[in-house]
Design brief:
Elements (H helix, E strand, L loop, with lengths): L1 H18 L2 H4 L2 E2 L4 H10 L3 E7 L5 E6 L5 E10 L4 E12 L3 H10 L6 E4 L4 E9 L4 E2 H19 L5
Antiparallel strand pairs: 1-8, 2-3, 3-4, 4-5, 5-7, 6-7
Helix pairs in contact: 1-5, 3-5
Length: 161
């Protein structure tokens, strides 16, 4: 029942964000930079633990939730000075006892809003990809991160079905 209520809350929040006109939600982001991601993390109560630019030129921002779950946002299609990215991949990895346990959990996870896979080395990887093409609002970015965190924390705590 608890998971059903969580799922309904997430679905309602997504529908409200989609139904609110862009002008009412704030400035549109056609791409993102480090400060955009850091501010979004802070606005939803996530602690920023690290950020920067990888050797490949991709941006990254690491975060930790109030429950202690660590996750990473990293950029795709990044360019310019300063660097800005057209896509953001949210990723969390959880170490389980063995790869068979990871495979079992991946099969059990039934969440359309995230992808789950066996990342090797006993790691259950959970991801959500955000596309900035044609712009998204800052509130929508925050909502996408919040949805990812809610589902990932549920999976981290043994749920996900």
């Amino acid at each position: 029942m608890k998971m059903m209520i969580k799922a309904l809350a997430v679905a309602s929040a997504l529908m409200m964000a989609a139904a609110t006109p862009a002008a009412a939600q704030g400035n549109l982001l056609n791409d993102w930079g480090l400060e955009d991601a850091k501010q979004a993390f802070k606005n939803i109560g996530v602690t920023v633990t690290d950020s920067g630019v990888e050797e490949s030129g991709a941006l990254y921002v690491s975060g930790k939730t109030a429950e202690g779950m660590k996750f990473l946002a990293y950029g795709t299609v990044c360019s310019g000075t300063p660097k800005r990215c057209k896509g953001m991949n949210l990723s969390a990895g959880f170490t389980l006892d063995n790869n068979a346990e990871v495979d079992r959990r991946v099969k059990e996870i039934d969440r359309m809003a995230v992808g789950a896979r066996n990342g090797g080395d006993n790691s259950l990887d959970v991801n959500r990809y955000i596309i900035f093409d044609d712009g998204i609002t800052r509130k929508n970015l925050e909502m996408n991160i919040s949805v990812f965190i809610g589902i990932s924390e549920d999976i981290w705590n043994g749920g996900g079905t």
